[in-house]
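subagent[fold] <- orchestrator: predict structure for attached chain, return tokens only, no commentary.
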Amino acid sequence: MSDTLQLDGGTIAYEVTGTGPTVVLAHGMGDSRAAYRHLSPLLVDAGYRVVAVDLRGCGASSVGWPSYSRADIAGDLVALLRHLGAPAVLVGHSISGGSVTIAAAEAPELVTALVELAPFTRAQSVRLSDLRVGRYRRGMTALLRTALFGSVTAWQRYLALAVPGRRPADWDAQLERMARELREPGRMDALRAMGRTSPADAGERLADVRCPVLVVAGSQDPDWADPVAEGEAVVAGLPAGLGRLEVVEGAGHYPHTQYPEETAALVLSFLQENAR
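subagent[fold] -> orchestrator:
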């Protein structure tokens, strides 16, 4: 079932599939709920009600929002949970990893657990030694070109680095879909606005989270010189004993795209312990 939720400032689109405990999937910038097309069926088959949402400015959601911070997206997710009328596990990728952190801190009664996939949940700093890591240096360059020029080509160059090696059979179709959507009025503006926001607002709320958290990192993620160390730092920022880190070897910034079965196995094991 595909539906929309009207909020102050715009409309959020989402899709509901399956029955059981609710799991809400929030994608990263420049994408849509289709990012979870391989992971979502595996969760549904395992007995979960999966709600895949388009972030503000993305997919079938409206454009022209006043701002696109992690806190803004968190507010949208909390509003969606209230609309759905059930507590849920929140799954957030990249920028949404920071957003689900804020949502859990703001509305603990609505969030039973968090899964953060390659999350941008902490303020970032770049050291000169980081630039010696080729994949990180090239990824940063492509992201910078995307931010400066609003270039779909630069974004696709970033994606080629963010999804290294193994790719799904529909990868070319995915690239075409993302390019087509980003050329729609307002979509690239939303991506660039998200890219300009700081993860500091999410990092400041890590200590306020009260539910279990699974952080999933890709060992070859170009968004960090050391993605495992970044994942460990996110876990360390949580209250003791709440978080754990799992690493998908060979994955880049999109483990749910490259390795959906492996990612689903990690998520489902976590949900069996923590979803209610």
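orchestrator: received. Logging for downstream: The first helix runs from residue 39 to 45. The chain has one domain: 2-274.
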